[in-house]
Every structure is written in C-alpha cells, then in structure tokens.
C-alpha cells in the first residue's frame, strides 16, 4: 500500500472510530406521554436536546391507560408522563417508579364546532344531541364523567353518547368529522384553526386534571439514559418547560 493510501486508511479508521464513539455516547431517552401532551412535549424536544448534547428524546404519545398497560407488560421507557395519578399507579404496580411529581393541570370543557348553537353542558342532555366521550378508563373520560356526576347530568349525557374514543384526540377527531355535536375534552385540545370552541364547565363541576410524571427503572445496573431521563424531568418541571406548558394552555401544578 502506498504511503498516501495508508494515511487515508488511517484517517478513515480514525473517523469511523470517532463516529462510533459519538454514537456510543448518545443516549436515547424514551418518553411515554399522554396524548394531550403532544404539543408541549414536542415543543420541548429541540431546546432540551440543544442544552444536552448527546441526548436524543424519543417521544411516544397515546392514551395514558394504554401506555400504563404497555409498561405493565414490560415496554421499555425511562419516563412516563400521565394525565392522571391512577394510570401512573397502575404502571407502578409492575414497575419501579421514582421521582414522581405533578407538573401541570388542565380542565375539561364542552367542545363544540365554532358555529354551534349549544350554550352549555346542560344542552348535552337534550334529546338528539350527539356527544363524543373518551372511554371511562381514559383519564379524559374519567374526568368528564366525574364532572357530569357532580352536575347530576351523567345518565342523560351518556345516553346521547355516540362515540367512545381511546384518547382525547379521538374525541376531537369525531367533532372535526362532523359526527358529533359536542364532546367533553381538555381545553388545550381545541387546535388553532378556529373550527372548535370551548364552553367552560360550571365551577360546581369541581374537576381539575392533574398531570404526573415519574422515572421508570428497567432492571439491571444504572444506565446513562436514566440520568438523561432525570434531566428531562427537571426540564419539564423547570422554568422553560413550565413556560412551554403555559403557552399550550396548561395550568401550573397545584
């Protein structure tokens, strides 16, 4: 081999070794998060990764009850952000959790098309009104039914239910398709196109959605990704993460 080729080979090997070392240092943090957190968590991804070189956030969004079930069945993730405490506790029955904290609040509202003539939650009990609800096991569905119970409207509104969605985004999708006249969903899920609007529930409904997160142990020795997961949890709870949540319409933790 000529000296030039030998030098090129050594440089190529050094480059490959350098790239390999970079990849080995990069840590992927898998985050399971409630569907309603998609907007703010995606907005957090870039600033967090910029502040933590070598860390790659892998975000997975679904109904909290589905994510809890997946964790109970052994799915690997370093962090779980749930729309309620109950699903975090379900996951904790099978997995070791740490660093549990409430990081945001939200409110259930009556969501209707922008041109709707419905005026409030009592209208959802009127005959012929098509109502979209999330499953009772889904945090959004549970919060909605708690509010209806407090207002003594649950039986009449459930009689008008035409859809039972697996997460809150399913409720919004049914409304956008024109298949329901109203739905009970989080106030943060209206979107920005102006096609939907929210009718607040009376204060007597007394329901506040509390979002909790926790780190998840995956067995064996501690892994560098565990430290990165702790850093992301701190980011969510810190000033920058909280500002992003406020911008998305979430309330502060109690």
Automatic annotation (TrEMBL):
Gene Ontology molecular-function annotations: metal ion binding; molybdate ion binding
Superkingdom of the source species: Bacteria
Keywords noted in UniProt: Metal-binding, Molybdenum, Signal
Pfam families, per the entry: SBP_bac_11
Family matches, as InterPro entries: ModA, ModA/WtpA
Transmembrane segments: none
An example Gene Ontology biological process: molybdate ion transport
Binding site for molybdate: 36, 64, 140, 168, 186
SUPFAM superfamilies attached to this UniProt entry: Periplasmic binding protein-like II (SSF53850)
Protein family per UniProt: Belongs to the bacterial solute-binding protein ModA family.
UniProt name for this protein: Molybdenum ABC transporter, periplasmic molybdate-binding protein
């Amino acid at each position: 081999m000529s000296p030039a080729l030998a030098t090129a080979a050594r440089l190529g090997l050094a480059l490959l070794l350098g790239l390999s070392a970079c990849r080995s240092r990069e840590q992927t943090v898998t985050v399971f998060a409630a569907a309603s957190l998609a907007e703010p968590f995606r907005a957090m991804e870039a600033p967090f990764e910029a502040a933590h070189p070598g860390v790659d956030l892998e975000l997975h969004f679904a109904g909290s009850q589905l994510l809890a079930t997946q964790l109970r069945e052994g799915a690997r993730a370093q962090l779980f952000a749930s729309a309620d405490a109950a699903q975090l506790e379900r996951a904790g029955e099978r997995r070791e959790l740490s660093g549990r904290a409430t990081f945001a609040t939200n409110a259930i509202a009556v969501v209707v098309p922008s041109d709707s003539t419905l005026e409030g939650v009592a209208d959802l009990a009127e005959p012929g009104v098509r109502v979209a609800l999330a499953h009772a096991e889904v945090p959004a569905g549970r919060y909605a039914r708690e509010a209806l119970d407090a207002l003594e409207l649950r039986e009449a509104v459930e009689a008008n239910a035409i859809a039972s969605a697996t997460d809150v985004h399913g409720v919004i999708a049914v409304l956008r398709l024109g298949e329901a006249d109203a739905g009970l969903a989080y106030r943060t899920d209206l979107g920005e196109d102006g096609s939907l609007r929210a009718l607040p529930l009376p204060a007597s409904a007394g329901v506040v959605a509390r979002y909790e997160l926790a780190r998840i142990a995956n067995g064996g020795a501690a892994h560098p990704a565990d430290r990165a997961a702790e850093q992301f949890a701190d980011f969510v709870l810190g000033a920058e993460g909280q500002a992003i949540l406020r911008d998305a319409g979430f309330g502060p933790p109690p």
